[in-house]
Amino acid sequence: MKEQPVNIFWFRRDLRVSDNHGFYRALTSGKPVLPVFIFDTNILNDLEDNDSRVTFILRQVQKLQELFEKQGSSFWVYHGRPIDAFKLLTSELPIDTVYANQDYEPYAIARDNHVETFLSSAGARLKLLKDHIIFHEDDVLTGGGKPYTVFTPYSKKWKEKLAEADLQPFPSEKYLSNLLQIVPLKTYHHADLGFRHGSFTAPPLILDTTLMESYALKRDFPASEGTSRIGVHLRFGTVSIRLVTALALKHSESFLNELIWRNFYIDILWHFPHVVSGAFKPAYDRIQWINSEKDFSRWCEGMTGYPIVDAGMRQLNETGYMHNRVRMITASFLCKHLLIDWRWGEAYFAEKLLDFELASNNGGWQWAAGSGCDAVPYFRIFNPILQMEKFDPDKEFVNKWVPEYGTSRYPRPVVDLDLARERALKAYKEALADV
Ligand code: FAD
């Protein structure tokens, strides 16, 4: 490769060329840019070898590589630890600055600190940009300068702060001619990573403004397909949050609020990283969970004998997706009726969900368990039968995923709802006795 100084753009959870803030900054920096992606073995080593998210990422990386090659450049892809990738890169190229978009998860923060220290020892810099969310870090604080821990005032402040500039696109796609000109590099396939093709198919990216307009009416009914299915695209950055937010602002307040929940949970994770392993409200860590392995297996398999719970779990197992209303019901059922530690359920969702995002998953689980920052009160326990009657009145969703429902092949209920409710209330009351 050449001797002139180059900049790097390190793609991570932002696998797109258009309206990509960090990529735009790199491409307009005045130096040629080498695009880099790292299949991070610190992450991949913990996944099943048929993880569908790896398939999704591989496909995006291949698409980007094809695009860069059309520009006379290529994608520098590495399989291993990020630090080793940068050791190799700095030994091969005179690197000035590595640009990347900021990631707010504890592992990513530690990784970036490590890489930054190494780069500065090698005479280069790491520059992180805000791309994944509209507001980050201390952008949205209370009047007293503290992070919000309740959603409604957070969202009010978020909306007050929002200015046109926050939604301005960064036209990175217009500057691809500034990529470093090189011969095509190796293209990665599943086998190179020790993976097989995953079995779940990610939904295509469709930004449907008609859907947004009926979202408030339909979003709670799992059979109606009234939600966007863009979670996986926001997770891996195959769509710009600025673009989606601008559409929501125009077409649906209710959809906008859900995007703000996403921003809220990412901010909570950033300000309160202890939520990764413990309850946001520490008293909830005193709950005496029953943690029955047998009940947990029945929940995972969708064999609890409660149809809406089972339908949701089977939808998850068969597609890598579960409707939001049903995520709330299945999560509540696990923590309250089965009195199983929410972290077991959180880990199961993390393994299966195509749109798995640490902040929203953790936030959703702590909400359901009552231990979260702005959670459902512990004594409000969803009744899965009433939830089904309200949100799946014609049993369309249940019949689709639990075809044997109503026959003798359908399992008997794993617990009696009234007894399980009393048991949960007792366990929570004991844990919170002196709060
Ligand atoms: P839509 O309803 O179309 O919403 C559009 C986007 O808004 C979503 O893609 C998502 O980015 C965001 N959003 C919507 N609802 C929420 C919410 N309640 N909290 C945060 N962001 C939201 N979402 C994830 O992205 N990843 C997860 O791992 C995740 N785990 C969850 C676990 C539990 C127990 C619960 C109750 C919720 C979880 N959610 C998670 C939130 C929500 O269920 C999903 O974002 C949503 O179902 C994804 O489907 P969709 O793309 O059709 O969403």
Characterize the structure shown:
Helix content is 47%, strand content 7%. With 435 residues, the protein is of the alpha/beta class. Strands 3-2-1-4-5 form a five-stranded parallel sheet, sandwiched between helices. α4 packs parallel to α5, α14 packs across α16 and α15 packs antiparallel against α16. The mean pLDDT is 97. The protein binds flavin-adenine dinucleotide. Flavin-adenine dinucleotide (FAD) is lined by residues 219, 227-231, 234, 258-259, 261-262, 265, 324, 327-328, 331, 349, 353, 355-357, 360-361, 364-365, 368.
What's a quick, concise take on this entry?
The protein has 435 residues and is of the alpha/beta class.
Mean pLDDT: 97
What percentage of residues falls in helices of 4 or more residues? 40-55%
Q: Structural class, from helix and strand content?
A: alpha/beta
Give unreliable regions as ranges. none
- Largest sheet descriptor: 5 strands, parallel
For the secondary structure, the number of strands is: 5
User: Terminal Cα separation, in Å?
Assistant: 63 Å
Q: SSE order in H/E notation?
A: EHEHHEHEHEHHHHHHHHHHHHHH
Give the amount of beta strand, in percent. Answer: 5-15%
Count of runs of 4 or more consecutive helical residues: 19
Radius of gyration: 23 Å
User: How are the strands ordered across the major sheet?
Assistant: 3-2-1-4-5
